[in-house]
């Protein structure tokens, strides 16, 4: 009987370049995500109250808010691209479960980018298009786009749960991932199942998790060297 393929903590293919630089990319991706999301959370209109439309209009009427929204959107898009670089090296640790890591991570990245664009396109248009005016007649569009952006984050974290559950299983079955990272992955994945209730927090946790996983790859690369 042929034994199933499993990932070993230190395989012959783990050259420093294959793990070190993707690990650096993961750290950068997580840091960019954390910074951008925290700034967005601290600098966003309150859309849930009775004055949501008025607050949204007041928010987008300030040029400084438009600049911040556009800048943080760019940072999130860069973070998403760096995550894809990091994802390839992470998937190699999963052995015969690598397809689950790649699928979950790729869908997470795509939905993160869609959510970012949905949440920022109003500000980008107002900031760069002379014919687009911020006013009561367009503020409702901004509200709808912000709701769409949050829905995108909910969907992105559902996809991330696939990746995280897989990393947890890998930590239990092959030892290619430390058990502490596996259990952190499990906790975040379970929280992702709460969908709209926890998406605002789990996307932050996912960013922090990416930093931790990136550090793991950097340490693996240093050891391989």
TrEMBL record:
This is DUF4386 family protein. Keywords: Membrane, Transmembrane, Transmembrane helix. The chain crosses the membrane at residues 20-42, 72-93, 100-124, 144-168, 180-197, 203-222. It comes from the Bacteria.
């Amino acid at each position: 009987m042929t034994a199933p393929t499993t990932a070993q903590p230190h395989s012959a293919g783990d050259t420093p370049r294959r793990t070190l630089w993707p690990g650096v990319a993961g750290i950068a991706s997580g840091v960019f995500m954390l910074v951008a999301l925290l700034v967005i959370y601290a600098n966003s209109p309150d859309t849930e109250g009775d004055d949501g439309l008025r607050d949204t209009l007041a928010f987008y009427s300030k040029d400084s808010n438009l600049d911040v929204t556009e800048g943080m959107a760019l940072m999130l898009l860069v973070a998403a691209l760096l995550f894809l670089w990091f994802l390839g090296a992470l998937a190699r640790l999963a052995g015969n479960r690598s397809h689950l890591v790649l699928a979950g991570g790729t869908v997470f990245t795509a939905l993160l980018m869609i959510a970012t664009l949905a949440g920022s396109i109003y500000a980008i248009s107002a900031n760069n298009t002379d014919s687009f005016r911020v006013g009561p007649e367009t503020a409702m569009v901004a509200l709808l786009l912000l709701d769409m952006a949050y829905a995108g984050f909910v969907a992105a974290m559902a996809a991330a749960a696939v990746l995280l559950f897989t990393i947890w299983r890998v930590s239990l079955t092959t030892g290619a991932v430390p058990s502490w990272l596996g259990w952190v992955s499990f906790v975040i994945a379970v929280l992702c199942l709460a969908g709209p209730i926890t998406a605002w927090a789990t996307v932050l946790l996912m960013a922090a998790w990416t930093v931790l996983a990136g550090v793991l790859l950097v340490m693996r690369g240093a050891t391989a060297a």
